[in-house]
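Please, structure for the following, as tokens.
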Amino acid sequence: MRAGEGTFTIGWLYPDLMNIYGDRGNILTLSQRARWRGIDARVLPLGKGPAPAIGQVDVFFFGGGQDREQALVYDDLLETKAVHLARAVQDGAAVLAVCGGYQLLGHYYETAAGEHLPGIGLIDAHTEAGGRRCIGDVVVEADPSLELRPGTLVGFENHSGRTFLGAGMRPLGRVLRGSGNNGEDGTEGVASGNLFGTYLHGSLLPKNPHLADLIIERVLRRRLEPLDDSLELAAHRRILDRELAHAAHGG
């Protein structure tokens, strides 16, 4: 682990402002799945202002927020977090960013009012304002390079932004149901090394424990012992079967 202290550290970026649609469940899932394997896990809140402990973080979580909340964290992100976050990723830390957090990792984000906010450029992507909200359950076929089993992801989206990936960027997966990144090109999220961005709330990791384990494995650089995920995967399959049935009937 990066901190060299035998502790798996999850850095929660702006927990008081970027935390909607059950995103806290992602923090709970990462920490608990580590603890179930005997790994000492802790959560480090990274609010506004300097964050001297940022170099101890193994996985950063950046949750979703409305335009108002994104504007409130924007200056602080650029001034006190961006350089350190980029350095941590280069050193092997992972990032899971959802919705608003995902948008701020790109080159720029356009608000509903038409304001362009430059992002921190960790991913080759940009987000434009959309004319309608994308709301509902989502089913994604995960990118084969991730080697996830099962090979699907499920979640809930609620966003008006339209994110477009650069030509060399791999999506987290392809949309089977829902809108995903932009409702046009069939992509959902991004998977770039240890950096994962997505529009999937709901929250994402409790219903997709295989993705949670992939993120932990990327940081620990070793395979994890399997857990009994029968309940989690039953919830996953229920959403998957329901939404694919609706799609098949034109719903």
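The longest helix spans residues 67-90. The CA atoms of residues 82 and 120 lie 6 Å apart.
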